[in-house]
Write a structure and sequence with these properties.
The chain has 147 residues and is of the alpha/beta class. It has seven helices and five strands. The chain has a single domain (8-142), classed as 3-Layer(aba) Sandwich (Rossmann fold), CATH 3.40.50. It has a five-stranded parallel sheet, sandwiched between helices. α5 (102-112) links the parallel β4 and β5. Mean pLDDT is 89; it is low at 1-6.
Length: 147
């Protein structure tokens, strides 16, 4: 057996945000808490994230969670998730926004069955981010079946 065969592939947590500072902060907080068990993948746009998803799907890598900014150019969070669930229908979906945008939340719930809606800032992550992500990942793990 090779090392590759004995090492389980880490499921992916994908974060997407067009603001480099926010994307960096999300990745930092996710790696700190989940980096041991998950691979943190980040993208600066919905289009870039879709390209990454295609590659992940080709390699048969599981995606546990999408943490997506709603307000992005070209492809907003809901539009991205509508396409992402075609690749990974069982992945958990959380929308992240700086705005208390009720219309976006309703659209996300109706269009892509969003699992959670988070407001920026999420500081401290121990109170505002990690409990939500813990629950979503726990639900995903309970239902995930490896191909």
């Amino acid at each position: 057996m090779t090392t590759k065969e004995t090492t389980a592939v880490k499921p992916v947590i994908m974060s997407i945000d067009d603001d480099p500072a926010v994307l960096s902060a999300i990745a930092r907080d996710l790696r700190k808490r989940y980096g041991e068990n998950y691979r943190i993948v980040r993208a600066d746009s919905g289009l870039t994230a879709l390209d990454a998803l295609r590659e992940l799907k080709q390699r048969n890598e599981p995606v546990a969670l999408f943490l997506v900014d709603q307000r992005m150019p070209q492809l907003n969070g809901v539009e991205f998730l509508q396409q992402a669930i075609e690749f990974y229908p069982d992945s958990k979906r959380a929308l992240l926004t700086a705005y208390a945008d009720t219309d976006a939340a309703i659209q996300a719930i109706n269009a892509v069955a969003i699992h959670h809606y988070l407001l920026k800032p999420w500081d401290p992550p121990e109170e505002k981010l990690y409990p939500v992500i813990d629950d979503l990942l726990s639900d995903w793990q309970a239902n995930y079946r490896a191909p």
